[in-house]
Amino acid sequence: MRMDRKTAADFPQELLNLYDEYVHGQVDRRGFFDRASKFAVGGVTVASIVAALSPQYAFAEQVKKDDERIKVSYETYDSPAGGGKIKGCLARPAKAEGKLPGVIVVHENRGLNPYIEDVARRLAVEGFVAFAPDALTPLGGYPGNDDEGRALQGKRKKEEMDEDFIAAAKWLQGHELCNGKVGVVGFCFGGGMANTLAVRLPDTIKAAVPFYGGQPAAADVPNIKAALLIHYAELDQRVNAGWPAYEEALKKAGVKYEAFIYPGVNHGFHNDTTPRYDEAAAKLAWQRTIDFFKKELGAK
Fold it and tell me: What is the mean pLDDT of residues 65-70?
């Protein structure tokens, strides 16, 4: 942990919960500012609170774009039932013998930001062909900041974005670098999308890893053939509320799954650009994710 950045411990939990509501559209900007004003004391402004809680993408580079171990390119694929032409970041090992398993990386509710691109590069270092689509492509792509990104993503129809990621998984499965075995990892919105792809593409998705993602309808769970590795944050009451019913449905359907609830951490704990990042939980969850993909997809 770098010493020049704040952590969740620097903020009241009530404020962190309020910020979570704000960034997920449950309270508007005015409502957030009104409710957060009680925390603006001692010369601190609500605007400075927002800035402190917002992503600092200078931290989102565990693997540099020019890392000699990988190759990175930006590719466009067809999504006729979704947004038409969708662009994404493709990362793969620089040196590999033969074809490799693929992993779709699904962003949060704000488009393909630098953190998600870095996640794709981290997977490439581990021996996967990783592809991170940008659902904001039809609206010009990720705009460079998360507030505008959230606003843009809110303009897109969820059904069309579903089709964009379905098309991405099929595109990756047929890519010349991929051996046909495909997994998916997603965060927040992307966690829900990981669950959606497991439901919608039972013959394509072999392994799915949703990080604090919304759950599918119980009636859809029997469609899942993929192995699941599910990560939740203990303090994320909003998302966790759907877990008991999901787990019951998984057990009833006989789906292979393993779930972890990380104690004392917040929604977004894996995102290393915000104060909600928890280094210990993030590293443990990520190592479990890599081990899981290697086991289920066969990467070395």
Answer: 95
pLDDT tens readout for residues 122-146: 999 999 999 999 999 999 999 999 9
Summary mean pLDDT of the chain: 94
How far is C-alpha 66 from the geometric centre of its chain's CA atoms? Answer: 23
The answer as to CATH 3.40.50.1820 being correct for domain 57-297 is: yes
At 92, list the tokens: 């793969």
User: What percent of the chain shows pLDDT beyond 90?
Assistant: 86
| pLDDT above 60 (res 1) | no
Phi-psi bin for 33: left (phi > 0), alpha (psi -120 to 50), beta? alpha
How far apart CA 137 and CA 85 sit, in angstroms, is 8
Residue 138 near residue 79, CB atoms below 8 Å: no
Instruction: Quickly tell me which residue has 């930001």 as its tokens.
Output: 113
Q: Give backbone dihedrals phi and psi of 256, rounded to 5 degrees, phi first.
A: -75, 120
Q: Residue 135: exposed, middle, or buried by beta-carbon count in 10 A (0-12, 13-18, 19+)? A: buried
In sign, the C-alpha dihedral spanning 159, 239, 168, 78 is positive
Name the CA dihedral angle for 193, 249, 292, 278, rounded to a multiple of 10 degrees. Answer: 70
Q: Which of 188, 199, 284 is nearest to 238 (CA)?
A: 188
The model scores a pTM over 0.90: yes
**Domain chopping of the chain, boundaries:** 8-53, 57-297
